[in-house]
Design a protein that fits this description.
alpha/beta
């Protein structure tokens, strides 16, 4: 007869006793800032809602609010500033971590610089942000006048329906996403704030890579490749690199916010956002 006691449940790791997502113990809450446009807004409450829910599932105090989808950087950054203040008040935290997707990265770089927010912003992580601009914006603005006018009219109409508080300005926003504006105006005036850690993630798939890209982004992908090299369908890898560059994901620009996520990239979506959270944990934020 075996007199040894069977392994009791108390001797097992909690992760085996109660399987659940691992907890990311961040010191500060996370403000998720979305980019230009409203595509994901028609599917979820906000463009970064699915990312926010994934982070919360891992114990991260994350917020994914909306601001005007088609607006100039200074207009959008003023809205992010109000929200940042609300988060600090609601959570009682001294600082926040900002994870900014696409144009949101430009908004928040501008906001931190203009208001010298080093005392309340611990880190800014940009995800596929056009830190050197995007040739796609140049292409859109160079389309024939009548077509461009109709496109801007339609996007402003949609933007005003989605976010009626502030008049939409699709053309003004696009002009600030061009490579000439970023290199000639934005980068000359917007500087990093001392004490804030700046990280970035880039992306590349489709032409010039071995990774597939959704057919809806193939034209944009090829146009950008001709001008800037490998890209995610909206922003080139090189343009997305800023501060401490962490890595390049194979997710397309829309897949990063879980829109049109291809079967081949489902696992990478989880890994990618795990990496973003783990970065902040490892950095002590």
């Amino acid at each position: 007869m075996n007199n040894e006691d069977p392994i009791s449940p108390e001797s097992l790791p909690l992760s085996r006793m109660f399987p659940q997502p691992s907890i990311r113990p961040l010191r500060y809450p996370v403000l998720l800032c979305h980019g230009y446009g409203t595509i994901a807004g028609f599917i979820t409450p906000s463009p970064l809602h699915k990312v926010c829910m994934y982070m919360r599932k891992h114990g991260v105090c994350a917020f994914a609010p909306n601001v005007v989808p088609y607006g100039r950087i200074e207009v959008r950054s003023a809205e992010w500033l109000k929200i940042l203040g609300m988060i600090l008040k609601e959570t009682g935290s001294r600082k926040v971590n900002i994870v900014a997707y696409s144009m949101g990265g430009l908004d928040t770089r501008y906001m931190i610089h203009k208001h010298q927010l080093q005392d309340v912003v611990a880190s800014l992580t940009t995800v596929s942000s056009p830190n050197s601009g995007s040739s796609l914006a140049d292409f859109t603005l160079s389309t024939p006048g009548a077509l461009r006018k109709q496109f801007m009219k339609f996007t402003d109409l949609v933007g005003n329906r989605v976010y009626p508080s502030i008049p939409s300005d699709a053309r003004g926003a696009l002009e600030q996403l061009t490579r000439s504006y970023i290199s000639g105006t934005f980068s000359k005036h917007v500087k990093d704030a001392p004490g804030v850690r700046y990280f970035s993630f880039s992306a590349a798939c489709g032409k010039g890579t071995e990774e597939p890209i959704n057919s809806s982004l193939m034209l944009f992908n090829r146009l950008i490749f001709e001008k800037e090299g490998i890209n995610d369908g909206f922003v080139s890898r090189e343009s997305a690199i800023y501060g401490d560059h962490i890595r390049t994901t194979s997710l397309s620009h829309l897949e990063q916010i879980k829109v049109g996520l291809m079967r081949e990239h489902k696992k990478e979506w989880n890994i990618f956002w795990d990496d973003v959270m783990d970065l902040l944990v490892d950095a002590g934020f």
